[in-house]
Amino acid sequence: MFFLFFISALAETNRHPFDLPEAEAELVSGYNVEYSAMGFALFFLGEYANMLLMSALTGILFLGGWLKLIGFIPEVIWFSSKVAIFVFLFIWSRAALPRYRYDQLMSLG
Q1: 3-state SS, residue 60
Q2: In this structure, what are the phi and psi dihedrals at residue 60, rounded to the nearest 5 degrees?
Q3: pTM above 0.70, yes or no
Q4: For a FRET experiment, which of 13, 39, 52, 64 has its CA 20 to 30 Å from that of 46?
């Protein structure tokens, strides 16, 4: 169940390999032209907020949330470290996995 949830979270946050290009490079970087300054910053802030939300949900549902393993470390530190691990996995998957084309994703499905 964990792997299915994590793959679904990758697809929901539009991370690799589910970030499907639609001629963005040919259209002068697509949404980068339409948004400028603060609009562009808020667009990417929303994407990373979604990634943090999915990491927090994964930590709560599958790793026990704020429950601690060692008695002297506060619960906030445990939960933050679990979220940080999954944020790292999101970023690492973007760097490590290739970007599929539509035909490759359909054959994968």
Answers
A1: helix
A2: -70, -45
A3: yes
A4: 64
Does the structure show a pLDDT above 70 at 4? Answer: yes
What mean pLDDT value characterizes the chain?
83
- H and E: helices and strands count for the chain: 5, 0
- Residue 49: is its pLDDT beyond 90? yes
Q: Exposed, middle or buried, 95 (CB in 10 Å: 0-12/13-18/19+)? A: exposed
Q: Three-state SS for 36?
A: coil
* Burial of residue 74, with CB atoms counted within 10 A of its CB: 0-12 exposed, 13-18 middle, 19 or more buried: exposed
Phi-psi region at 98: left, alpha or beta (left = phi > 0; alpha = psi -120 to 50): beta
